[in-house]
Specification:
globular, single chain, seven-stranded antiparallel sheet
């Protein structure tokens, strides 16, 4: 597990994350790593998130505030059966429904648990940054 303080740049990609992505197509791996960088930018920009722990959950790169009661886990991984990537949050939260309500057709969705980002092409970065911030501060709303 990697722990990251918000005042330092994104950490090097941990070996456990590299290993999880080793067999992915280049575009998919690159997109996961690009979204990982976006997440660390969100952490650096939002002091209330605090320290974030990076680990694997269900074999997926996962990010969660170290302080209990701050936010929920964000997972960034390949969509099953596709080369596309998703920003996953627990389906027990309202996060994906809120994203869908606010942003509608700018993305596709994996049910109540994920905002899908194509492996190639443009990313709705402002909306995804907001989504990640909302997740990492979910319990402080």
């Amino acid at each position: 597990m990697t722990t990251q303080d918000r005042n330092t740049p994104a950490p090097a990609v941990p070996a456990l994350v590299e290993a999880a992505l080793a067999d992915y197509p280049d575009a998919t791996r690159d997109r996961v790593l690009q979204l990982r960088e976006v997440l660390w930018e969100v952490v650096a920009a939002e002091p209330a998130i605090g320290v974030v722990e990076e680990s694997l959950k269900w074999g997926q790169p996962s990010y969660r505030p170290a302080t209990a009661g701050t936010g929920t886990t964000v997972r960034i991984d390949r969509v099953s059966g596709s080369d596309d990537v998703a920003v996953f949050t627990p389906c027990s939260t309202s996060l994906v429904a809120e994203f869908r309500e606010a942003h509608g057709s700018i993305a596709t969705y994996d049910g109540k648990r994920g905002v899908i980002v194509p492996a190639e092409g443009e990313i709705p970065l402002p909306a995804l940054r907001d989504h990640m911030r909302e997740a990492l501060l979910y319990f402080q709303r």
